[in-house]
Design goal:
Number of strands: 0
Shape: elongated
Structural class: mainly alpha
Largest sheet: none
């Protein structure tokens, strides 16, 4: 009876080891650690941060619609401000 659980434990350990790839030992663990860290910082963390920002924004706008101020500056229209070279003064010259 004592060898039955040892055999089961060995089978489970072998299955887990084989499912994780052909590399065994510390190299295998290190590669999974690096892959997990990269996945967290490239996919999981940005997704959570975006979700948290959206929740905060929704909570702010729901509590008092006049207290929320958009942080981005509006993009100016280059035609009206004359930021495009050669456009400055064309409207003024046409009006005169």
């Amino acid at each position: 009876m004592g060898s039955g659980w040892r055999r089961t434990l060995g089978t489970v350990r072998s299955f887990v080891s084989n499912s994780m790839g052909s590399v065994r030992g510390g190299t295998n663990l290190a590669s999974w650690l690096v892959a997990g860290t990269l996945a967290y910082f490239l996919w999981v963390k940005p997704s959570r941060d975006l979700h948290r920002q959206q929740q905060d924004k929704a909570a702010l706008s729901a509590s008092d619609p006049h207290s929320y101020v958009e942080k981005r500056k509006p993009i100016p229209d280059p035609q009206e401000t004359g930021l495009i070279y050669g456009n400055k003064g064309k409207e003024e010259a046409g009006r005169k």
